[in-house]
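Hi U.,

Before I forget, here's the chain from the pilot set. I'm dumping it here mostly so it's searchable later in email.
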Amino acid sequence: MKQSIHVAAAAIFGDDGRLLITRRSDHTHQGGLWEFPGGKVEAGESVQQALCRELKEELDIEPRHYLPLIRIPFSYPDKTVLLDVWRVLSFDGEPKGLEGQPMRWLSVSELDRDEFPAANRAIIDSLQLPDRYLITGDYFEPEDFLKRLQRALDAGVAMVQFRHKTPRIGPMKLLLDKAVALCHAHKALLLVNGDFELAEEVGADGVHLSSTQLMSINRQQLQQWRQRWPQAWIGASCHNEKELQKAAYIGVRYVSLSPVMATASHPETEAMGWQRFQQLVDKVPLPVFALGGMELDALDQVMQSGGQGIAAIREFWGS
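Structure:
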């Protein structure tokens, strides 16, 4: 039977917005790789208590303001690990490697997934993804589309799914080209719904798969695309545990999970609610966006439930 370990880990931000990472000792499990500081939750400890104790013992700092980031269940050949990761936004003290471990301060964009244990890669994805994900909706004309997109980007949206069945030529392709340029001018990600080749052709940042596509694609097919386009963000729409497990197995980098709340567009579909959302999120090592009836004031609830943020049409796009 595999050993099971619950670990509290910290993404520690300095005043300049950079992250603190430390290097694992060569003689430890996954030795020589970089990691987010933390350690095992001891019997009788809460995760928060373990987080504070470990950071004091390892770095001589005391967290002041910290929030949940992501929970990652991960299985190695010899053990299973639950990484309970927290975003530490302020702390007392000056970090120093009390156990002789090397330290580095890096911007989020400088984090290299290949330099970390496999279980840490979803943490990096979560840190590099925003908390607001717009799915484009209906519009009257191309100018209206671009105005709605501009308004959403100005309001802080930093990730957009272009959700149209887009021909490779013609006015819709031209609109997609403009959408990519506008998003990139705002340092926002743009993903194309369902079409790998089109997304790569227009210089988008990745692809969002429908649940039907997710269940029809196999791991080898997705890995071929990832080898061809290593930096692509590949996500998927999920509605249940089976789809979430498939998404994690084939190697997507994030998912949306719906419907969390009742929606006007699908009133006949039963909402899962926050308790079920959290139960499902805890089962997958991926950033999860809550979708369905989402409004901005739900962000705190999403994060307390282990989610990445909210995905929405109406809230960001308008009626």
